[in-house]
């Protein structure tokens, strides 16, 4: 109470303080006191309203408390009555306890009497159990399955009835069968369990051999199916009965549910696996794999025909036996091909597996048959080999083929190298061109591999072509090295025992590269435009290697030409050459003989060799001129030298034209260079040299000061001021090389001049 009083006083103080604060704010000026009456009236009204609301709340609270007290009084009265009734019931229960003990004794006597009555009523059946078991066993052994199953069902019914009679009515207290009594009944009917096992064994043996029985005598198979359906119906009946009496915890009969329908399909699946595993299984690995897959195909289709036309008629329609058999076959093949894929297979074996999985299995010869398509759902069961497995097999196949291709290319190259040492010219084709067996072997091998791979898929063909191009690039690299070694060996042994067919086989090598280029381009076209970007780098590799090999072979051909021209070049631009014209004639004979050999080369290399032959002749002619073997002393010698050079030019041009190599104009024809140099040498006025040199520079912008200086030395009459003017002009002009221009003077080195010493050379002391 003191606390409440303190709280009340504190609240009053706070209220007074708040009122004073409000009043000081409202009546801050004297004129505001005029409205004091209004404020007093308004506050009085507010106070009256608050008092009325407080009274209403207190009144409603008091009414609720009064109603609650009335309810508590009524509940107390009812509790007293209930307590009185419970006391009476307790007294009555104590009076009946002695009578319940008497009823328990009567119940035990009743249960014993009922069990004895059941035993007496079942004595005739119990005496027959052993004889029926023996008779049923004989029926099972003789495969009279329906009769045996009927006897078995009767024995099981007797067993269930005995157990039910011994247990008594369901829901009656004290009627639960003891474990000793139940064990006694189980032991007495133990032969029934053995009969079930024996019948099941015979039943599944019949189901497992259903394919063979269907063609001979399907009666046994039909009997087995009828028994399976009977057992399935009994399982369903017992399950329904147990569900309907689930609150009473009714036990299932011994060995139920048997689920023989599920077991039927399981046995069929095991029979399929065992049957297919026996099909040429011992010869599966190695060369017999393709025969094994073919035997599987014939066995599966034969069995499917039997299932569709015979076994399907022996089972209920809801079995969908054809669909189930297809599923069993598919699952077996998935497992079997997964095992086969893990073996170390050769290329031919991998091809057989891929072809069988991707083409034969889904073709109209197997699962693509219209009658089977509606039964088989490949998407639901999955492919025979997963996409990852197929990719692994394809990669294995490409690796095996690559190994084989590499070995064959190595052998073909060894044969090629052996052919180069033969003492006879190479073979000549229908176009009159040299060739060997190398390009034919390589091209046929790569084309055949691509064709075989295409029988599987385009992707495998592309991988095979890619591999073939890579191996061809390696071969061409070794081929070029072999050509280089062939040339070195020829140069080393040329003085002792020269190979007289050296040039012939070089030309055959060029033709081989041209044939291989055609084969390479054909393989590239097979890749298609869709894959062109992907394989562009790989496709360019062999072409670049071919170009390098061709260039090297052509270089060796030109080296051989130079080797045969070298004796004649030694006599060129000498005093003997000025007096006699046999040197140039001999050179033309060598060129003519070589160009006849070049006619054994395919285009465009034939024309290329002839052009290179012409180019080499001109370069070596000018190089000989740069050696200053002849230095003119007067105008007669200059005219004689220029006239002889002009005759050589015309003679060379006539021979080259006869060999169909001179199809160009003088502006780009290398033989025109000799004529231009002859004009410079024959010029009478040395002061006009700068004009002639400027015209020469315009045609041959790669000519250097050293080349022009040698020309002026050969003339022998160029004054120092003219020489200086010409060299200054060359130094200032230096025009850039036009696009497409082939430098000629760049290949001609000017021999360094010997330094003249004023003192005699002598050994130092």
Percent strand? under 5%
Largest pleated sheet = 2 strands, antiparallel
CA gyration radius, whole angstroms: 59 Å
Low-confidence stretches: 661-667, 755-765
The helix-strand sequence is HHHHHHHHHHHHHHHEEHHHHHHHHHHHH
User: In which range does the helix fraction lie?
Assistant: over 70%
- Structural shape: flat
Supply the helix-strand structural class: mainly alpha
For the largest beta sheet, what order do the strands appear in spatially? 1-2
Count of DSSP helices? 27
Give the integer mean of the pLDDT values: 82
Can you describe this structure in just a few lines?
The protein is mostly helical and 765 residues long.
Name a few traits of the molecule:
single chain, 765 residues, two-stranded antiparallel ribbon, flat, EXOC3/Sec6
């Amino acid at each position: 109470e003191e606390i409440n009083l303190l709280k009340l006083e504190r609240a009053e103080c706070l209220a007074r303080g708040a009122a004073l604060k409000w009043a000081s704010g409202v009546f801050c000026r004297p004129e505001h006191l005029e409205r004091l009456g209004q404020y007093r009236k308004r506050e009085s009204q507010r106070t009256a309203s608050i008092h009325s609301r407080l009274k209403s709340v207190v009144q409603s609270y008091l009414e609720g408390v009064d109603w609650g007290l009335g309810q508590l009084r009524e509940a107390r009265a009812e509790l007293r009555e209930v307590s009185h009734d419970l006391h009476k019931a307790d007294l009555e229960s104590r009076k009946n306890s002695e009578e319940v003990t008497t009823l328990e004794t009567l119940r035990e006597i009743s249960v014993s009497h009922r069990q004895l009555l059941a035993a007496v009523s079942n004595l005739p059946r119990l005496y027959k159990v052993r004889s029926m078991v023996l008779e049923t066993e004989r029926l099972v052994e003789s495969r009279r399955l329906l009769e045996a199953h009927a006897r078995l069902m009767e024995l099981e019914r007797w067993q269930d009835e005995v157990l039910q009679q011994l247990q008594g009515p369901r829901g009656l207290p004290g009627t639960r069968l003891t474990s000793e009594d139940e064990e006694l009944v189980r032991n007495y009917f133990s032969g029934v369990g053995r009969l079930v096992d024996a019948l099941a064994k015979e039943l599944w043996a019949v189901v497992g051999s259903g394919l063979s029985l269907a063609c001979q005598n399907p009666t046994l198979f039909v009997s087995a199916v009828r028994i399976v359906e009977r057992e399935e119906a009994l399982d369903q009946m017992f399950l329904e009965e147990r569900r309907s009496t689930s609150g009473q915890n009714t036990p299932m009969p011994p060995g139920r549910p048997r689920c023989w329908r599920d077991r039927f399909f399981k046995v069929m699946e095991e029979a399929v696996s065992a049957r297919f595993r026996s099909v040429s299984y011992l010869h599966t690995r190695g060369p017999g794999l393709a025969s094994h897959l073919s035997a599987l195909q014939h066995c599966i289709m034969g069995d499917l025909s039997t299932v569709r036309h015979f076994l399907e008629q022996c089972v209920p329609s809801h079995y969908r036996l054809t669909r189930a058999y297809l599923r069993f076959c598919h699952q077996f093949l998935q497992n079997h091909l997964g095992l086969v894929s893990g073996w170390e297979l050769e290329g031919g074996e991998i091809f057989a597996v891929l072809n069988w999985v991707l083409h034969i299995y889904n073709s109209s010869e197997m699962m693509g048959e219209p009658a089977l398509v509606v039964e088989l759902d490949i998407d639901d069961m999955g492919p025979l080999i997963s996409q990852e497995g197929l990719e692994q097999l394809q990669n294995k196949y490409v690796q095996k083929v690559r190994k084989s291709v590499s070995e064959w290319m190595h052998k073909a190259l060894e044969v090629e190298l052996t052919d180069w040492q033969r003492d006879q010219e190479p073979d000549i084709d229908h176009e009159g061109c040299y060739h060997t067996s190398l390009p034919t072997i390589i091209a046929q091998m790569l084309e055949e591999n691509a064709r075989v791979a295409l029988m599987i898929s385009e992707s495998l063909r592309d991988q095979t072509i890619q591999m073939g191009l890579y191996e061809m690039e390696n071969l061409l690299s070794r081929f070029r090295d072999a050509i280089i070694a062939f040339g070195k060996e020829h140069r080393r042994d040329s003085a002792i025992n020269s190979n007289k067919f050296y040039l012939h086989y070089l030309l055959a090598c060029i033709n081989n590269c041209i044939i291989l280029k055609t084969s390479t381009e054909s393989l590239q076209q097979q890749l298609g435009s869709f894959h062109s970007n992907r394989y562009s780098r790989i496709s360019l590799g062999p072409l670049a290697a071919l170009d390098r090999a061709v260039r090297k072979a052509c270089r060796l051909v030109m080296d051989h030409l130079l080797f045969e021209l070298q004796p004649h070049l030694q006599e060129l631009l000498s005093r003997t050459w000025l007096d006699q014209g046999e040197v140039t004639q001999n050179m033309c004979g060598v060129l003519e003989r070589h160009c006849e050999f070049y006619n054994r080369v395919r285009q465009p290399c034939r024309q290329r060799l002839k052009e290179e032959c012409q180019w080499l002749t001109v370069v070596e002619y000018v190089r000989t001129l740069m050696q200053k073997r002849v230095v003119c002393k007067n105008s007669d010698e200059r005219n004689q030298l220029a006239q002889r050079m002009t005759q050589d030019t015309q003679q060379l041009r006539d021979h080259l034209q006869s060999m169909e190599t001179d199809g160009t104009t003088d502006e780009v024809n290398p033989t025109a260079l000799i004529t231009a140099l002859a004009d410079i040498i024959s010029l009478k006025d040395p002061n006009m040299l700068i004009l002639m040199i400027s015209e020469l520079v315009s045609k041959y912008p790669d000519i250097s000061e050293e080349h022009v200086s040698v020309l002026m030395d050969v003339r022998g009459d160029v004054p120092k001021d003219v020489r200086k003017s010409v060299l200054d002009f060359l130094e200032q002009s230096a025009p850039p090389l036009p696009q497409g221009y082939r430098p000629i003077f760049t290949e001609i080195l000017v021999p360094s001049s010997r330094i003249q010493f004023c003192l005699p050379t002598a050994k130092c002391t």
